[in-house]
Amino acid sequence: MPPVKVLEDIYWVGAVDWNIRNFHGFTYTTHRGTTYNAYLILDEKIALVDTVYGPFAGEMMERIKEVVDPAKIDYIIANHVETDHSGAIAEVLKHASRAKVIGTARCKAGLEKHYFGNWDFQVVKTGDELNLGSRTLKFIEAPMLHWPDSMFTYIEKDALLLPNDAFGQHLASSGRFDDEVDEAVLMAEAAKYYANILWPFSTLILRKIEEIQKLGLKINMIAPSHGVIWRKDPMKIVQAYISWAKGEAKRKVLVVYDTMWGSTEKMAKAMVEGLRSEGVEVMLFRLPCSDRSDVVKELLDARGLVVGSGTINNGILPTVAPFLEDLVGLKPRGKVAAAFGSYGWGGGAVKHIEESLTKAGMKLVLPGLSVNWVPNKEELQRSFEFGKEFAKKL
Ligand code: FEO
């Protein structure tokens, strides 16, 4: 793929990673791959905004060379330390020996600890500007969106926001713009990205959007560091972020469970019917068969979550633990929850689940439902009623 013209004198020179299937270690499955977006700005001075993941450095350099001699690059804007964006800085600097690296103070410290390079670095903070000639780059610190070093770059002349990870999607595609991909797929990937990466920072996201609105920055285009560029309607993703950050959800419930010999599963299915009978949209996930990051994505617009596990060794099945651990870290806001499960003798799974759900900031709205061994007819009816009662708490 050649470099892609984004606007006059601004080029996408990043890389498309069609084959990556796991991100952030094995915490996030990227079924549709991803992209690492880097943007080259040609003016009296030349700036490269972000780079790519190290293994794609050569590919990026080839794209840069198609636009300009890399030796002419004056600035590398490092909006974020994480290696999927900074991994090729050292390679760029081999060719652009006079280039200065620009980022926040935390970015400087982070890059030094990642790459141990003695680079010419200029620290910037919110409100600082860098004139390139006809364009001026404006910097906006964005700590914890999603790392302490994170920063947005804004170009007033083009009404272009380069927010790095924010507003991104893990989506490899031949098109580089939102109007060149399927809209439903795009929004689903944007939601998955928000839920799995940005959810814990929802309060900060609302504040940052408000701060940008107060600055009165006109935004015609948002070019994130992953996925496609929002040019058709950039406010669509901003509005989606506001909605997700506020915890807006619908009458939808996830029933998430694992089972040893099928008893907890029988309860789960009876609950689904109880929820359905109250007109609630329900999704059922057995954990070992379901991708955790997909389940988290589905939770984003659900109002309720019911988690079940058979008891083993006085606790939960180990297959349920990673999901609960995700929830504790992500802290989904505004959800109601309940726990259930079968047991043989001592029990313990329901209590364990309830503790985790509480730790994740969810509100328990029903006492947990435990069933000894295999649920009989009455116990299945109780599971059905449990679903109905939960629906009324939404
Ligand atoms: Fe895409 Fe936080 O790196």
Name the helicity range. Answer: 25-40%
What does the oligomeric state look like here? Answer: single chain
Structural classification: alpha/beta
Number of domains: 2
Shape: elongated
Q: In this structure, how is the largest beta sheet organized?
A: 7 strands, mixed
- Low-pLDDT segments, ≥5 res: none
Based on CA atoms alone, the radius of gyration comes out at 24 Å
In total, the number of strands is: 24
CATH superfamily placement of the largest domain = Ribonuclease Z/Hydroxyacylglutathione hydrolase-like
Question: Which cofactor or ligand species appear?
Answer: MU-OXO-diiron
Nearest-integer average pLDDT = 97
What's the CATH C level of the largest domain?
Answer: Alpha Beta
Q: What's the CATH architecture name of the largest domain? A: 4-Layer Sandwich
Strand content range: 15-25%
Can you describe what's shown?
The protein has 394 residues and is an alpha/beta fold. The protein has two domains: 4-246, Ribonuclease Z/Hydroxyacylglutathione hydrolase-like (Metallo-beta-lactamase, Chain A); 250-393, Flavodoxin domain (Rossmann fold). Helix content is 35%, strand content 24%. The chain has twelve helices and 24 strands. The protein has helices spanning 57-67, 83-86, 89-95, 105-115, 183-198, 202-215, 234-246, 263-277, 292-299, 321-330, 349-359, 377-392, and strands spanning 4-7, 10-12, 15-17, 22-23, 28-29, 34-36, 39-41, 47-49, 75-77, 100-103, 121-123, 129-131, 136-141, 151-155, 160-162, 221-222, 250-258, 281-286, 302-309, 311-312, 315-316, 336-343, 363-364, 369-372. Strands 1-2-7-8-9-10-11 form a seven-stranded mixed β-sheet. Strands 17, 18, 19, 22, 23 and 24 form a six-stranded parallel β-sheet that branches. Strands 12-13-14-15-16 form a five-stranded mixed β-sheet, with no helix packed on it. Strand 4 and strand 5 (28-29) form a beta hairpin. Helix 5 (183-198) packs across helix 9. It is elongated, with a radius of gyration of 24 Å. MU-OXO-diiron is lined by residues 80, 82, 84-85, 146-147, 165, 225-226.
